Amino acid sequence: MISRQALQSVILATEYFNSRASFFKIQPVPIYEADPASAAKYASQGISALIAGPRLTFTAHLSQASKKEGIPVVSLAAGSLIRGKEDLVFRPRPETGGFALGREAARRGVKNYSVIVSGFDSGYVQEFIRDFEAGLGTPPRRTMIFGGDLVKQIGHFGRIVRGMDAMLLALSDWPSIVAFRELRLMAPDIPVFASNRAISHRSAFLAGNLGKDFYTAAALPGEEFNGREGFYRFVTDTYGHHIPSCILAMGYDGVAMLNAALTRSKTHDRNSVARALSELESVNSSAGIAAVDRRGGIKLNHSVLTLAPEGWIPFEEPAPEAGL
């Protein structure tokens, strides 16, 4: 789901930037190729740059093929498996959000937790878990693979949650909600932390009235992005509210990087665009002016989100009661 909504965000952001451009237009050409080498080969036919989705493993393989063609890639994937601008890869979301989520778990005093994973995007999953562990300072006690016969797998949840202070889900959006609902029925009082791949427009609907103490972490857009003339208002006024703002912001920032490079290079020539992307020191991102690090990634802070009836919202720590 995040891949589909991320693609929609990229297309919408392209439309938004084109509506405000004076001397060039970005013309998106969707490439429906599951094989990274085939995608790079197709892109060699007059395309200035590629924007790839959030799957880390796909981008890592794509960069090997695209670099040979001299094609710069703006990737929505997070994780250090991608080397960065030395492979002509530039990213609006280079971090997984796991460290910020681990810090929140540490603040809550979590000591014992188990992890539920699936087979999707293994490079990203492994790094997300490592980042969470680094933020918390404690490795997971148990790990379980969630896939195949889900009914049979759910039957083992009681074992993996027993004696835990919290649970960590490294799953995509629908399996995350299924796992969360079952865990909440078995252990109603412990927090559940999830990769931001859990975020989608259907999270609150699927969680129902069980959606409490469910957390993730993502980079949040700023006031200008959400304001009257901002991209979020542009999308919601025209197309509705079905894409969460943090996913819209991710797609927007990917196009913002490409737009900044095109503005700098003043040409669609891929070599010039690649050079301009490599020289970017900052980007006017969804969160405002943000620095670009030495590996070609936008440096943004991740915030903790919690699932509410209206969807994923910023988590605000409850104020202490008077006298405490």
Biggest sheet record: 7 strands, mixed
Which superfamily, in CATH terms, is the homologous superfamily of the largest domain? Response regulator
Beta-strand percentage range: 5-15%
Structure summary, number of beta strands: 12
Structural class: alpha/beta
Helix content percent band:
40-55%
Describe this entry's structure for a reader:
This protein has 324 residues and is an alpha/beta fold. The chain has two domains: 2-93 and 223-291, Response regulator (Rossmann fold, 3-Layer(aba) Sandwich), CATH 3.40.50.2300; 98-218, Rossmann fold. Helix content is 43%, strand content 15%. The protein is built from 13 helices and twelve strands. The protein has helices at residues 2-20, 36-43, 56-69, 98-107, 122-136, 150-154, 157-161, 173-186, 203-207, 223-226, 231-239, 245-265, 270-279; strands at 50-52, 73-75, 89-90, 113-117, 142-145, 166-170, 192-194, 214-218, 282-285, 288-291, 303-308, 311-314. A seven-stranded mixed β-sheet has the order 5-4-6-7-8-11-12, with helices on both faces. It is globular, with a radius of gyration of 20 Å. Mean pLDDT is 89; it is low at 319-324.
